[in-house]
Amino acid sequence: MTSLSQQQQQICDQSKADFSGLKAIIVNATLKPPPEKSHTDTLLDVVAEIFESQGVEVDRLRLSRYRLAPGVYPDMTEHGWDHDDWPAISDRVLEADILVLGTPIWLGEKSSLAQAFIEKLYAHSGQTNEKGQYRFYGKVGGCVVTGNEDGIKHVGMGVLYSMSHVGYTIPPQADCGWIGEAGPGPSYGDELDEGGRAGFDNVFTQRNTTFMAFNLMHMARMLKDAGGIPPIGNVRTDWDDGSKPGWPNPEHRRDG
């Protein structure tokens, strides 16, 4: 069963762009434990189907399956915690050309798991790529938001800024979402008494989701074909190490 509207399917079918060789990881920061149904997953299904229709390899990651230890180092078992699943899943994120983080809105903010995931991205801020740039240079990021309260743009603003700060490139219209009517009510994808599913006929959501998915693919394609961002004026090794002995801020840490 397709998750795409007729118009979305038509756009995908008519696309002549070559996105082969691109890898995307779609991360769901729902608070619901698996295998409970996630409304955020339902909208992320649309993004995944657009990607896959264009030949992009898609990996799905549901954060509630894992235990991410608090902290901003790549492996927090080296810093006092007895367990951290991040080292076991981080390569899946690091290998992807495209990152899409999906989150519900709670109290006007992204979920606690979304924040924990962003902190894990930040844990790699002391690492560099083969050009000496920060680790996430040459990759692109986007954000999907669901819920029953206002705040899509507010949540997207924080998520996309965080991605940009650690090195991701953010293309135009890199966020989308659906919040429905304020207050208790159906969430995205719920079956409606009058028939149909909540949000599936919302042109605003369909349009922004399609724009986001294609803009992520276009930007990832351009960056990959160009060999990433040119290493001029943005190479860490051109500067001193910036270290402050005794202070563990990862942005001032030098890894090897």
Automatic annotation (TrEMBL):
<dbReference type="GO" id="GO:0016491">
    <property type="term" value="F:oxidoreductase activity"/>
</dbReference>
<protein>
    <submittedName>
        <fullName>Multimeric flavodoxin WrbA</fullName>
    </submittedName>
</protein>
<feature type="domain" description="NADPH-dependent FMN reductase-like">
    <location>
        <begin position="36"/>
        <end position="157"/>
    </location>
</feature>
<dbReference type="InterPro" id="IPR029039">
    <property type="entry name" value="Flavoprotein-like_sf"/>
</dbReference>
<feature type="region of interest" description="Disordered">
    <location>
        <begin position="234"/>
        <end position="256"/>
    </location>
</feature>
<dbReference type="InterPro" id="IPR005025">
    <property type="entry name" value="FMN_Rdtase-like_dom"/>
</dbReference>
<dbReference type="Pfam" id="PF03358">
    <property type="entry name" value="FMN_red"/>
</dbReference>
